[in-house]
Amino acid sequence: MPGTNLTREEARARSALITTRSYAVELDLTCGPETFASTTTVAFDCARDGADSFIDLVATSVQSVELNGVQLDPADVWVDSRIALSGLQQENVLRVAATGAYMNTGEGLHRFVDPADGEVYLYTQFEVPDSRRMYAVFEQPDLKATFAFSVIAPAHWQVISNQPTPAPVPAPTAARVEDVEVARWDFEATPRISSYITALVAGPYDVVREEVITRAGTIPLGVFCRRSLRQYLDAENILACTKAGFAFYEREFDHPFPFAKYDQIFTPEYNMGAMENAGCVTIVEQYVFRSKVSDSIVERRALTILHELAHMWFGDLVTMQWWDDLWLNESFAEWASTVCQAEATDWTQAWTTFATSEKAWAYRQDQLSSTHPVAADMVDLASVEVNFDGITYAKGASVLKQLVAYVGREAFTSGLRAYFARHAWGNTTLDDLLTELETTSGRDLGEWSRLWLETAGVNTLTPRLEVNDGFIRSAHIEQTAPAQWPTLRPHRLAVGCYDLQHGRLRRTARIELDVDGELTEVPELRGRAMPDLLLLNDDDLAYAKIRLDEHSLATALAQLRAFEDSLPRALMLGAAWDMTRDAQMPASDYVRLALRALEGESDSTLLRVLLMQLSAAARSYVAKANRGTVHAEMAAGLRATALAAEPGSDAQLQLVGAWAGAATSSDDLERLRGALEGTVPIEGMAVDQDMRWTLITGLASAGAASEEEIQRERAKDNTAAGREKAARALAARPTPAAKEEAWLAAVEQDTLPNAVVNSMALGFGRVHDPELLRPFLPRYMDAVEHLWNSRTHAIAEALAVGFYPAALADHELLEATQTWLDEHPDSPNGLRRTVSEHRDGVARALQAQGADRPRPTAR
Ligand SMILES: [Zn+2]
User: Fold this and answer.
1) Average pLDDT per run of 10 along the chain, which is 859 residues long?
2) What is the dihedral of CA 727, 728, 734, 738, to 10 degrees?
3) What number of other Cβ atoms are within 10 A of residue 286's Cβ?
4) How many CA atoms lie within 13 Å of 89's alpha carbon, on the beta-carbon side?
5) What is the CB neighbour count within 10 angstroms for residue 734?
6) What is the rounded distance in angstroms from the CA atom of residue 857 to the CA atom of residue 859?
7) What would the 3-class secondary structure string for 125-187 be?
8) Distance in Å, CA 276 to ligand 1 centroid
């Protein structure tokens, strides 16, 4: 029984047999709050007369199936999300009438009611396999076709899809719709695209329109959001970034923008950052800023905008044949958007952000037992769904960055151009890209691809220096690999020499070389005076963990703020974080280092990541015996730095948030309440709605905000965001009853939308006293398999990740998790993977705790 799965073998067999031509999809969105009517007409060819195949459909009910003029009984042919098709002819027409269900999980056609004004908003999210929740479809990326949507909806709505929105025509008002004028939108057929990038967005969205001049002519641009958010939409910033991206990509790819228009819609209750639907990009609504956000978030939004735009070429115009190359799709968009951001926007430090957040994500994921080669073996849809991870996005992009260094930027760009020219509107595999790059670079990429893409794990590079009288007598780079992933790889990288001059660490030499094998000599260093600091992987070309020699580490720790550029500073801090995670630096020391590093940090993302790592170290990596002292030090340090931060600055915003998250002393709580109520304001800091929630949630998690106060705030902030933030604050209260309430609502009932479930999980896991979560350890282990099997993928994952009592971080948690794994060898792979990642996290925490020797607390 396939359930809702589909294997790669089935997909291969199907595309060998079937060639899809066109879809006409008629949708009626006026059937009430639960369901919609969907009629699909598909024209397709079959290579073998009389052959059998199937089409995918997930629906509430199927009214009729007509194949080549013959009515089939839906009860006979529709089983398990598939409609069986037999006796196919060379040319076929299939017509399926069905009733589909609106989702509240962010998968398929999602329906949302705005608490602010009661308006209904719909959007689709189809990747990986959910277009079949809206219409009957051969759901696999290499069966491209044209899609013509026809939509009946309330006349006052915006209806947005892949093609330009046509003028609506009046539709006969059915009796079922009371007092609502109804209209019909008949969209023109799309070019030949994959079903997972088709889209429909509908509702009374507000819009800002613009145009951009491109090589394909004038392309209309639209930026949409819910009405109640319109006042916060900074469309100018979004459009400026979008236009910069159009110019950059058309030039780099030497191929005109492939679609007729480009709309970007901010959608509610969205599971991910954004989705590259052809000409109809959906973006998580938190990127419409109703309150002040940190610059790092604005930067992240710009990157997301550019990421989706890059997909219009790489992904939408040229598409992976099967999900094996999902990594290439995502990694390319990550890499291209970062290049674009660094070279064509004001975010010139984009590579520092990449090193700080993207690579840290990759290194973390690559050291879990679940890691996998970048080029993954996606045997079925179930394995694809759990693979939107740090390998697929972040490691892949890091490896592409390394590949660009390896073949040279010019050869890379010419290879890309040839690739787009040759494969436009088609489907490809990795080999198609490598072939072009080999031609333009003259390098044989077979071995490179095998070592980098077909094996997992991260190498560590350590300087081995012999220094005598201040001079380097010999210099080598040692490469190691973890026992379970023993591959050593070729690395193109730079070594930087930094010397202290007038209090600044200036780079006095840069040596670029190929590192390969266990030991690589750096002859250029021999005979040189030992610099104050020697930095491996300077400029962050390589994908590898780096270590510092003792002398350089001492310089770095003493001179945290002395780097002129943010990138080497980020690399140095990243190395310290890796050492802490690898139990080579006591976590208490790391906390103190991070607290000092915060002071004066001007790079917004670096600051944001430091704050997250600081908190993670203090909660999980510091030895139990040190935890009280270290926590107090952290809270005091955050308070001092927050209150000393420049009034109104980005740093102030972030630091106050972090302080509110750490505050437990009555002194701190009183001060924060003073800030919330305006009795003791923090100079220059606006207490806007989201800052109110930050403070209230901080107070709530320390037991200093009551349920009544949270409910009052929610009533005042009667919005989708308010609902989510209230759920989080309520779940953060440090009482057994509050944790129980969150558990019951999210885990044991199945009614809450995805966004609320996610917020609750965040609040649930946020504890100063981990013992609050102890009772949920056995309950989690008992419930998780059933949850996984009974919920949609998005919700199952949110629960399995968010309600795991990770904060316990002790031996009991490790044992219980390992026992579950031992006793559930046949659980679904995705779930086993999630649980084994939890196990790895606890094991690492215990190791770090073991290395955190008790020591005096003096700073
Ligand atoms: Zn993407």
Assistant:
1) 84 98 97 96 98 98 98 96 97 98 96 95 96 98 98 96 96 66 96 98 98 97 97 97 98 98 97 96 97 97 98 98 94 97 97 95 95 91 87 95 94 97 97 97 94 96 97 98 96 96 95 96 97 97 96 91 91 94 96 94 96 97 96 98 97 98 98 97 96 98 98 96 97 98 96 94 97 98 96 93 98 98 94 96 98 65
2) 20
3) 18
4) 9
5) 17
6) 6
7) ECCCCCHHHCCCECCCCCCCEEEEEEEEEECCCEEEECCCCCCCEECCCCCCCCCCCEEEEEC
8) 7
Tell me which residue has tokens 């529709």. 78
Share of the chain above pLDDT 70, in %: 98
d(CA 713, CA 486): 54
Cβ of 534: how many Cβ atoms within 10 Å? 24
Residue 251's CB is within 10 A of a number of other CB atoms, namely 11
Q: Could you list the active site residues?
A: 308
Q: Kindly give, in sequence order, each residue whose CB lies less than 8 Å from that of residue 141, ignoring residues fewer than 6 positions away.
A: 194, 195, 196, 319, 320, 321, 322, 323, 427
When computed from its CA atoms, the radius of gyration of the chain, rounded to whole angstroms, is 28
Nearest Cα neighbor of 191 from 256, 315, 263, 278 is: 278
For Cα atoms 227, 231, 237, give the angle at the middle one, nearest 5 degrees.
110
Task: Give residue 308 CA to ligand 1 midpoint distance, Å.
Answer: 6
Count of other CB atoms within 10 angstroms of residue 697: 26
Q: Cβ atoms within 10 A of the Cβ of 744, count?
A: 10
Nearby residues of 500 by Cβ (< 8 Å), 6 or more positions away: 506, 532, 555, 559, 562
Nearest to 12 by CA among 317, 392, 323: 323
CB distance 160 to 202 below 8 Å = yes
Distance 331 CA to ligand 1 centre (A): 8
Question: DSSP state, 271?
Answer: S
Closest by Cα among 456, 521, 516, 519 to 482? 456
Determine the distance separating the centroid of ligand 1 and the alpha carbon of 525, expressed in angstroms: 41
Q: For residue 130, report the distance from its CA to the centre of ligand 1, in Å.
A: 16
* SS3 at position 120: strand
The phi, psi pair for 568, rounded to 5°, reads -60, -35
- With beta carbons less than 8 A apart as the criterion, state whether 214 and 249 touch: no
Structural tokens at position 714: 């929610």
Distance from the first to the final alpha carbon of the chain:
63
Token pair of 291 as six digits: 């309150």
Distance 311 CA to ligand 1 centre (A): 7
The whole-model pTM stands at 0.94
- Strands 319-320 and 274-275 turn out to be unpaired
What is the Å distance from ligand 1's center to 333 Cα? Answer: 6
State in Å: Cα 789 to ligand 1 middle.
27
Contact 497, 508 (CB under 8 A): yes
Torsional class of 69: left (φ above 0), alpha (ψ -120 to 50), beta (otherwise)? left
Spacing, Cα 270 to ligand 1 middle (Å): 15
| Degrees to nearest 5, angle at CA 682 with 680 and 687 | 95
Residues pairing with 169 in the sheet = 184
Distance (angstroms) between ligand 1 centre and the Cα of 222 equals: 20
| CA 820-826-829 angle, 5° bins | 90
Encoded tokens for 24: 């006409």
Structure tokens at 757: 């479930």
Ligand 1: centre distance to CA 326 (Å): 9
Task: Find tokens 């070592």 and name the residue.
Answer: 451
DSSP code string of 619-686: IIIS-HHHHHHHHHHHHHHHHHHHHHSPTT-HHHHHHHHHHHHH--SHHHHHHHHHHHHTSSPPTT--
Which secondary-structure segment (H or E) carries 700? Answer: helix 689-701
